[in-house]
Specification:
The protein has 132 residues and is mainly α. The protein folds into 2 domains: 30 residues; 97 residues, no CATH class. The protein is built from 5 helices and 2 strands, in the order H-H-H-E-E-H-H. A two-stranded antiparallel sheet has the order 1-2. Helix 2 packs across helix 3. The longest helix has 23 residues. It starts with a helix and ends in a 5-residue tail after the last helix. The relative contact order is 0.12.
């Protein structure tokens, strides 16, 4: 397979996804986090954790963030994950931004033996959360 073809497919995918997001954002009907939304949630969760550790007063948004999200540090990067009931590493569900979606779909497609939508949805839902 031509390595350049994969790049072209990714470019086309990103363009179409961006177009869909622009249309859906006006309806508030998206479950895909933009890079800015992801960064803002990460910043807000970190701030809520800081407030809790220092004993500052938490507002309703802080409680919502602390009840819904955790931050997992992997090397130098920080990932937003869904709140877990225990420290079980198998129960981690990641949030991702729009830039990561193509690679996730491509890897899942290969890992599931090139299954189509339903097979991939099942696999993806075990590792990833829907957006905000």
């Amino acid at each position: 397979m031509d390595p350049g073809a994969n790049f072209v497919a990714k470019e086309i995918f990103q363009e179409k996804l961006s177009s869909l997001l622009e249309k859906s954002s006006s309806n508030n009907f998206t479950t895909v986090l933009t890079v800015d939304q992801y960064s803002n949630i990460l910043k807000e969760v970190k701030e809520s954790i800081r407030k809790k550790k220092t004993g500052e007063k938490l507002n309703s948004q802080d409680y919502r963030r602390l009840n819904r999200f955790e931050i997992l540090k992997i090397g130098e990067s920080e990932k937003i994950i869904a709140k877990r009931n225990n420290e079980d590493m198998d129960s981690i569900k990641y949030y991702c931004d729009v830039k990561e979606i193509y690679e996730i779909l491509e890897k899942t497609h290969r890992d599931t033996g090139h299954k189509r939508r339903l097979g991939m949805e099942k696999q993806i839902s075990q590792k990833y959360c829907r957006g905000e």
